[in-house]
Amino acid sequence: MEYTGSQYIGEFVDGRMEGEAEYILPTETKYVGEMKDGMFHGQGTLYFPSGSRFDAIWEKGLVVKGTYTFSDGLQYDAKNWHYCDGYDRRFYTEICYGLKPAGISQLTNMDPPRKIPPGYYDCGDGFYNPITRIVKDYRNRFLRNADDDEHEWIIRTCRKGWDETMGHKPKL
Description:
- By secondary structure, this protein is mostly beta strands.
- It is built from two helices and eleven strands.
- The longest helix has 10 residues, at 148-157.
- It is found in: Cell projection, Cilium, Flagellum.
- InterPro entries: MORN, Morn5.
């Protein structure tokens, strides 16, 4: 554990993590549930720093069946996912609490939205620096390096921390 920066609270059997336990990763993601032979096994929940969670049944470290719940209570449903799709573009908070009056935009599910530092993108779990290709969480802790696919997706899709003039630019 000292090499990975993780923390384990639970029992050991033959030197391996086993039984009911709590496993905290360096990113502060926390697993609470059953362990067997050093792996997630049985019922367990991953709690993410963002407030979201993933309840699952695990077998030898792999998910057999699980449910992801966002921090606002919205549950992901792969078969019947209608949240913010082509038909209904409302955010979950708008579905729960109603739309804002005409002329007042809601840019994200979080209202008011996070302030994005200049030169960065908000990619949902943190801020992305397109120069270094590093994603840091909202408390400025390293999350990951973005690969080419994620980089392109963030640049194309996510909110950015600066304004750009759109449309026609008059000559001065």
